[in-house]
Write a structure and sequence with these properties.
Layout: H1 11-17, E1 21-29, E2 34-43, H2 53-62, H3 66-83, E3 89-94, H4 96-101, H5 107-115, E4 123-128, H6 136-147, E5 152-158, H7 164-171, E6 175-178, H8 190-205, E7 209-212, H9 218-227, E8 231-232, H10 250-259, E9 280-281, H11 286-295, E10 301-306, E11 309-315, H12 316-322, H13 328-332, E12 347-349, H14 354-368, E13 373-377, E14 380-385, H15 387-403, H16 414-426, E15 432-439, H17 441-448, H18 450-468, E16 473-479, E17 482-487, H19 495-506, H20 513-518, E18 520-524, E19 530-534, E20 537-543, H21 553-567, E21 574-577, H22 621-628
Parallel strand pairs: 2-3, 3-4, 4-5, 5-6, 6-7, 7-8, 9-10, 12-13, 20-21
Antiparallel strand pairs: 1-2, 1-8, 10-11, 13-14, 15-17, 15-20, 16-17, 18-19
Helix pairs in contact: 14-15, 17-18, 18-19
Length: 629
Amino acid sequence: MLKTTQDKVSIQHILDNKSVETVLQPIYNLTTNRVLGFEALSRGPKGTQLESPLNLFNAAHQHQCHAQLETICIEKAIECFARQNLVGKLFLNITPNYLATRCANSAWLQDLLHRFGLNGNRIVIEITEENPADNIEDLTNVINELRTLGFQFAIDDLGAGYSGLIQWSKIRPSLIKIDRYFVQDCDQDLMKREFLSALLNLANNTNAMTIVEGVETEAELASVRELGINFAQGFLLAKPATKADTRVPPVLQTQNDVNTNANKLSTDSVAHLLRPVKGESWQAITLDILERFKNDKSLHTIPILDEQHVVGIVMREELMEHFSKPLSHALYDKKPISLLMRTDFISVESKISLEELSRMLTDETRLEARTPFVITENGTYKGMGSVRSLLKKITDAQLERAKYSNPLTLLPGNVPIDKELDSLLARKQNFHFAYIDLNHFKPFNDQYGYAKGDQVIVLLAQLIKKICNTEHCFIGHIGGDDFVVIFYRREDLTMLNELVREFDQKVKAFFSQEHIFLGGYAGYTRSGEQTFFQLLSLSIGLVSPDVNLCTSHHHIAELAVDAKQQAKRSQGSAIFHCNRKFPTSLQANSPTRPQYDMFEKPEPALQPSNHEEANPPFLSTRAKTQLAH
């Protein structure tokens, strides 16, 4: 046995004195910027060789006292988490063999949690893959028992050892934590990104959530967010500390500020779900809260406040279940409700969209599994909302969208487009509007038939959805061969170049080799005159309206149609970005022109209304020869 000195200490001395220190590292939800929970990490006495967790647990293995050390680490972690009254979950690292043997009788773990006022639903047990269980069936049985008490399970350091996927298939964890090796430099390493993407897809298919460890640079953070991974921890966000860091990391707050201007497809906000519920102080007597539930059968959740800020919630079912146990009244009747409140609630700002809330709940409720959520305004409590009311709102919106969707492409039609534009203008939110039209579409229908024409429209719709289908774009189908894309970010406008390139390439499959060789074909205008029509191409009119001058979708339509007509003056596919910020009808001392919807195109100011019927200014020799015959 080692002698205790300033820089050396024996493992037995640590066990006898329980001289283990817990540090906590937060895990963040990258969608909401809220803390999901804290991982508890153990350290030996400071300034000694056993301060390092690696040295500490190696010494325990050598002296065959690993189970005793692990028990102390678990006790210290729960005490540290409870003493700081932290929100979210406590993530505990437990080896599979310890879990299968020491936790086979869960009474001691329940007693430990009860001593510090915690429930099983506050705990996530991380099962390390470097030390697999001797008997996987025993481990599975213990896990199933603890799940009935609210515990959740995660596979830790996935990819660091050989047994992770086996344990994953047997245990069916709620979460997987991907080893830091695959996160380091993932912004530069294609293989690591492919690995992360594959694990994310597997997790989604097995209803598990994915957490990445070891995020240390902003580039790594941006890379995992682009992949769709919503939970992360690492030194970039917060380092482990004895006093947990509960602040929003500046890097998350900065990125959130950038993204808050991205408009969502639903014009309704969370404020439409608000239901006023009187809050109670965290110092309120528990018996008074219980009586309030008994006197109001319609009351299901009570928010607990520290002044005007929500610090927890109390749910009827949980409180009633708690007081059904022996001695509960004697223990808690006169104690403050803060001892029994849930601190892992969901809180949202009233101004966010319903679709953004839906994504947040999809990310979180699989872990927290609770329906009520707190609604705030600039952090101040305003009321409560429920998933049921959210689902009704979203269902109604989907039915309305389906009602006004184009039957061929299923994209939003005229009514949703107009509503989206009016909503953006009402909020004075800057945007860019692209009006996309097929050139020479009627002659193509005459030449190749309407079935082929529908196929071309579907092709264009698929390309637009493939290239522009992000949360920062709104895609609509006005009707016929006319489409629109609303861009909420200027940097996304380059997508239009890609759209033109892909369309010009893929549309050739609809033409005969002869017409491709000639660059077009002979046909007749609506007046019966023979002319030469070029192959199908795109005209895109792009406008960036002044949201302080334009007040309705009619103004945007007028501006966009003029821009599209300018694009039609070019040979082949073209994009015309109009410099004008408002239509001519809004010019000073000018009488207001008749308003029209997107279906009703005005007489263009710069081109004949049937531009495709005009002879192009240049014809190849072959094309002229064909016309002559």
